[in-house]
Amino acid sequence: MARYSRSTWARLDAAMLPTPGGSSRGEALFPARSARSRAGRRSRLLPPAPASLRASAAGRQGRGQLRRRQEQERELTAWRQSLKRRNKVLTAANRQRKQEWERLSLVVGVTRKYTSNEENIITEFAMAMLWKFMRVAKYSKAALSPKVKVRGIPTHSRHSSSKSVPSDFAANTPCSNTVELLGRAYPQDEYSNVTEKILSKVGKNLHNKKHHPLWLIKEQVKDHFYKQYIGRRGTPLFSVYDGLSPVVTVQQNFDSLLIPQNHASRRKEDNYYLNRDHMLRAHTSAHQWDLIHSGLDAFLAVGDVYRRDTIDNTHYPVFHQMEGVRLFSCHELFSNIEDGQGLQLFEQGHRTAHKQECHTMEAVRLVEFNLKQVLTKLMTHIFGDAGAQDKIGWAFGLGLERLAMILYDIPDIRLFWSEDERFLKQFIVPHISQKIKFQPLSRYPPLINDISFWLPSEPYSKNDFYDLARTIGGDLIEKVVLVDEFTHPKTKKVSHCYRIIYRHPERTLTQDEVHRIHQAIEESAVRELGVEGRF
Length: 535
What we know:
The protein has 535 residues and is of the alpha+beta class. Among the domains are: 206-246 and 281-427, BirA Bifunctional Protein, domain 2 (2-Layer Sandwich), CATH 3.30.930.10; 444-535, Alpha-Beta Plaits (2-Layer Sandwich), CATH 3.30.70. It is built from 15 helices and twelve strands. It has helices at 6-15, 25-29, 38-45, 51-108, 116-133, 196-199, 213-228, 250-253, 288-293, 330-334, 361-383, 400-408, 421-424, 462-473, 511-529, and strands at residues 178-181, 184-187, 239-241, 247-249, 278-280, 298-306, 318-328, 392-399, 447-454, 477-487, 494-502, 532-533.
């Protein structure tokens, strides 16, 4: 076989290099073959490679393939080891999720058997919802930090006997001595008694959800006041505030309304306190002082309010109020009265920085008549024909749930919190004043269980037990009623027997799931309230 020198190989290679015009020198030497590939041309220009060179090239290719196979095997081995480690972690996580699922199913009452994959999905969703409502950045989006201690601190206040009641989730929530709500942290103290169940309702804003029955009622009232009462400039006389924060100070809720320090309405067993100085508002009147001192003489304030109360189909610890306030100057009140120039708003008397003198009888009668007219016109519109300086005025408060229950024939207050389309779609109407008659959902049978226990020696409040039952049973509990109270003739110990009626508004409950919830209530009552069970 012919052998070529290095210079000959170099000339042949140079013939294949591209020229500045884009073609190769080989194309100039062989113009007839310019359409052929460069590799084809080179194969014709060069003689066959020596056998030794071909053998060494094949050896290098074989060694490269071997190295690649070895690298792939190493990567596969490493991947298998990482998969084993991941499976171990997932196994531990699945065990934890299964425990969380069991706790969740106890609260939400799940009866169907789910697959492992479904359990993981539902558990992740439920826990995500739990953490979501535990973080409030804005009033329209409820919150509580995941690093929040939502279980309250047991109290021994001299002002009240109320205790806070943690739910089953509280033990699994990272502990802290503060509650973060609406972007602010509130330190807990002996007054703190707000529960997870209540915090989960903060920011729901049912009165601002379009086509919700409470929204329809609010819009009807607004429409009436906007059209009926016009200011001097042709604009609505009343302004509306429906996004005020539900967290208020004790001063706003009580002191600004001149409620005495020892008044029964301040008790912890009737209110939800974040701490000694802050609380969830018990009424929309908590905003009266601020709005009046901002210069407003006529306004409506709408919002959710929070009170510890009994459990039945007309009471719920969270409901919605509309506050109406109207103030009159002396000229505004008496301008339409013949010979009213000499009439006054106040009697001669003593005025303090916090309280006016007594009003005159003429002023009281006129304001009383004006308020009666306002409420009469408002009720006719909805139902049909069936410190304020030198001013006097009236104020009213309406419970939106009560109006909606009467207007739409809604039998159970729990339904307002339902997300069942069968309920909500009945209120999607083209006009807010359209007549609606609620069509009841299927009536599911109730399950009734009793619970009795000896009361503790320390002060006890029925609202503490109601809060505990609602925290654990949630909206599965339709009603709790004290059916028997017994005093032992010798020991003088007092026993209470409560009847708990379980009924889900959207499905049938089983005795097994009710038994689990009832047993959890019994155990929590002993642990949290210090009672002695008679189960």
